[in-house]
């Protein structure tokens, strides 16, 4: 009987594409951080818009794509974060840029009592219920005369700050929020809690039988998604300088997020990024066509769901193995007589 040498196993946590993406990402962020010194103000405004789209879509993807909780009412926290930022700036004398994370924190906190109502529902009822909750938020702020009622109001706290300083600071805040959102979501999904979240998405009963605190995990993800949505809302209305209930709590925000995630690839970190860039480009160059533009968005979504069921990035990842943010681990047999690949773990 021949004695087989023991296998030497190593865990591969990154891919060649992810290592290249890390180097390229750091370089892009460093160059982007210098944009206010040499770029035009219109470029900064466009980036802030893309950043808000991306952050909001990323949070929806975390909630639905990874957590399995399909919500069409995340605009409730988007608008709430924006209004809290405005009230802190206009009425409490807080610097609006400091009020951005405070508005996001308020959105995360208000998500806790909201979850007591939302989590009594499941499936399609949960989705519709979150939309109803968002409408309650919209009607509530529309009846508060201090913030302009239904017509909204202007962010007056920025009047003492010159335009160049305001635009560059808003831009840097947006860049920092994008980097933080990507890094934190990536680290979370690579942790044990991220694995637990995927188990809950696939089968709640089986996950709970394995000792995973399902209710606590779902609440945590719901609060984090609300925090991110509030961050996107506060950032957006600092750049927009005006807020109204119809703009802040419009269901279009969640519809756009769903579009971006589906186009890019649901359940992938790269998906919202690809989707946000595509949506921004379509919105930038085709929005003047009115109803034809909306029909084009719908047609594109239908084509992608028919021919690229995993989204555009999902298709590229499936065909060419591209993974800029790998959340899975590969077990490799690196012994001289062993194979190079044993199995892949989530």
UniProtKB/TrEMBL annotation:
UniProt key word Membrane: yes
Subcellular location: Cell membrane
Domain of life where this protein originates: Bacteria
Membrane-topology annotation of the record: Multi-pass membrane protein
Any one Pfam family match given in the protein's UniProt record, by short name: BPD_transp_2
Annotated transmembrane regions: 20-38, 50-69, 99-119, 139-158, 170-189, 219-238, 250-269, 289-308
GO molecular function: branched-chain amino acid transmembrane transporter activity
GO cellular component: plasma membrane
UniProt keyword list: Cell membrane, Membrane, Transmembrane, Transmembrane helix
The protein's name in its UniProt record: Branched-chain amino acid ABC transporter permease
